[in-house]
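Hello, quick one for you while I still have it in my head. Could you read through the record and tell me how the tokens relate to the sequence? No rush at all, and the record is pasted right below.
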Amino acid sequence: MADPMPDARLVGPRPRAADDGEAALVPPRSWPCPRLDVLSTLFRLHSEGLAARTFTGPVPAHDTMQDLLRWEQRSTRELRQYFDVHRWPGVRLVGEAGAEAAWWITMMCDRHTPFQRDALGLLHEAVEAGDAPARHAAYLGDRLLMHEGELQTHGTQWVLHEDGSISLYPVTDPSALAERRRAVGLPEAGMDSDVRLLSLTRRPRLEPPPHVRPAREGNLT
């Protein structure tokens, strides 16, 4: 039976295959997963999150934002219950699709920084145990850096501006960015895959000065 996968619009870039003698950056496929009840909850929250984040204008309207905030509150409450019992819901517990969904849901809970910080600690444990891909921790780590007003490390986060255009959030030591991304299984930086993880419910604390602000990449569609 094939793994059910979340909507492709919400899944980050697929990791590269490991070279001979190199540690794999993503754990092996696991299906059927042992906890279908957890997987079902993750898929439900994932689907609800996608619906809440679907909007017609360049930025979320007031009603859309209220839906997003309610979804974040519900998601953090339900995921914390699983964290308390299972730690991070990784591949061994919920399969690749479930692990992707858990990561995406956590990424989108932008008004709950303590929750995201706790989740990142659990996610690091899962990565070290081979139960989650390293790219998941890279994305969530960058998101927290963005919310805390620090330069991001892996170039995964983009800023949505009020006119609907986007720009890459500032990156520390850009000259070494490609190497850092390769180390966690990410492709070279680009808009097509990373723009899906924009911060839509909260503005970042750090805005680059106009003279160093990256060129905007056009409107989000």
